[in-house]
Amino acid sequence: MRMITRRRGFTVAAAAAAISVALAPAAGAADQYGAIAYSSNGSWGRSWDYPTRPAAEATAVKNCAYTDCKVLTSFTDCGAVATNGKAFQGGVGATLAAAMKDALTKLGGGSIDTWACN
Question: 62-70: which pairs have CB atoms within 8 A and are 24 or more residues apart?
Answer without folding.
Answer: 63/3, 63/4, 63/5, 63/6, 63/37, 64/6, 64/37, 64/38, 64/39, 65/5, 65/6, 66/6, 66/39, 66/40, 66/41, 68/39, 68/40, 69/37, 69/38, 69/39, 69/43, 69/45, 70/37, 70/38
